[in-house]
Specification:
The complex is a heterodimer of chains A (about 150) and B (about 140). With about 150 residues, chain A is mainly α. Chain A has helices spanning about 1-20, 25-35, 40-60, 85-100, 105-110, 115-145. In chain A, helix 1 (about 1-20) crosses helix 5 (about 105-110) and helix 5 packs across helix 6. Chain B is an all-alpha fold. Chain B has one domain (about 5-140). Classes of the chains: A mainly alpha (about 150), B mainly alpha (about 140).
Chain lengths: ~150, ~140
C-alpha cells in the first residue's frame, strides 16, 4: 500500500510540475524550439530547474544503501553510445517537433481533458508497442541466423 | 506566440526535479516517462503497480489544480491537425523506445547523473526537434 501511495505522490508532484512549467502546452514547447520565429525561452528554465534539483537530490539519495521501498536502485547499465540511441533520439525529435508533445508532457495533458492529448498518447503507445514487437522479431531472427 | 514565464517555468521545473528525487528515494527508479510507460504495455512486467500509480498521479495533478483554482489556469494550445497528431505520436513512440528515453528520462534524470548516453541522446533530440520545427514552420509554412 505504501509502495503504491508513494509512487502516486511522486506522480502528483511530477504532473503538477509539468502543468505549472508549461510543458503540458504544445504551443509553448514549439515556441521554445522556434528560435527563428516567436522564440519563448521558458523551456530552458524548466530544464534548468529540474536538472539542479535532480542533480543535488540524486547526490544524497544514491549514497544510501537502498531505496525506501525496494531492495536496490534500478539504474541503467548500458554505457555505449550505439546507433539505436542516436537514431531513436533523432526520430523522437521529429515527432516532438511536429506535435509539441513529448511523453512526459503529454501524459499530464490528459488530465486537462484535451482530446488532442488523448489522440497523441494513444498513437504514442501504439508506436512504443510496435517498436517492442519489431525489436522482438529482430532478436528472434538474429537467434535463428546464429543457430 | 506564447508568453515568457521564467518564474512559473523554473518553479515547475524544480517540482519535476523533486518528483524525480522522490521516485529514486522511494523506489530506486528513474522518473522517465518512456521507461515507466513501457512497463505498462504487454508483455506486462510484474511491477506494474508503482508505474500505474505514478501515471495516475501525473494525470490527476493538472485536473486537481484546475478543480482547486475553479478556473482553467493551465494554458493549453495546439494547432496541429488530428492526422499529424497520430503520425507524430507514432513517430515519438518508436523514437523514444529505440532511443531508450525521452525528455524526462534522458533530459532530466540522465543529465543529472552525467550519463554520456543521456547527454548524447538529449543533444540529438533537441537538435532534431529544433530542425523539425524550422522545417514545418519556416519552410513548409506551418499548420
Amino acid at each position: 500500500m505504501i509502495r503504491t501511495l508513494s509512487a502516486l505522490f511522486a506522480g502528483l508532484v511530477f504532473g503538477a510540475g509539468i502543468a505549472i512549467s508549461g510543458m503540458a502546452n504544445p504551443a509553448k514547447v514549439l515556441s521554445f524550439f522556434d528560435v527563428a520565429g516567436v522564440w519563448d525561452p521558458s523551456l530552458a528554465f524548466v530544464m534548468g530547474g529540474a536538472l539542479i534539483v535532480t542533480a543535488i537530490g540524486y547526490h544524497f539519495v544514491l549514497r544510501r544503501p537502498q531505496p525506501l521501498f525496494d531492495r536496490t536502485f534500478h539504474l541503467p547499465s548500458a554505457r555505449n553510445i550505439d546507433p539505436a540511441l542516436i537514431a531513436g533520439s533523432a526520430v523522437f525529435g521529429v515527432g516532438w517537433g511536429i506535435t509539441g508533445f513529448c511523453p512526459g508532457g503529454a501524459i499530464p495533458a490528459l488530465g486537462l481533458g484535451e482530446a488532442d492529448a488523448l489522440l497523441f498518447v494513444g498513437s504514442m503507445l501504439g508506436g512504443i508497442a510496435a517498436a517492442r514487437l519489431a525489436r522482438h522479431a529482430m532478436a528472434v531472427r538474429t537467434q535463428s541466423d546464429a543457430a | 506566440m506564447t508568453e515568457f514565464t521564467p518564474l512559473a517555468s523554473l518553479l515547475g521545473g524544480a517540482l519535476i526535479g523533486v518528483a524525480a528525487v522522490l521516485l529514486m528515494a522511494f523506489h530506486g527508479r528513474i522518473a522517465g516517462m518512456t521507461g515507466i510507460l513501457s512497463g505498462l504495455l504487454p508483455p506486462f512486467s510484474n511491477d506494474w503497480t508503482w508505474r500505474a500509480a505514478f501515471i495516475a498521479g501525473a494525470i490527476a495533478a493538472p485536473a486537481l489544480i484546475i478543480a482547486i483554482a475553479g478556473e482553467p489556469v493551465i494554458p493549453f494550445e495546439s494547432a496541429v491537425p488530428a492526422p499529424w497528431l497520430v503520425i507524430g505520436g507514432l513517430i515519438v513512440g518508436i523514437g523514444v523506445y529505440f532511443g531508450s528515453g525521452c525528455t524526462s528520462g534522458h533530459g532530466v534524470c540522465g543529465l543529472a547523473r552525467v550519463s554520456p548516453r543521456s547527454i548524447a541522446a538529449t543533444l540529438t533530440f533537441m537538435a532534431s526537434t529544433a530542425l523539425t520545427v524550422f522545417i514545418v514552420r519556416h519552410l513548409l509554412g506551418g499548420f
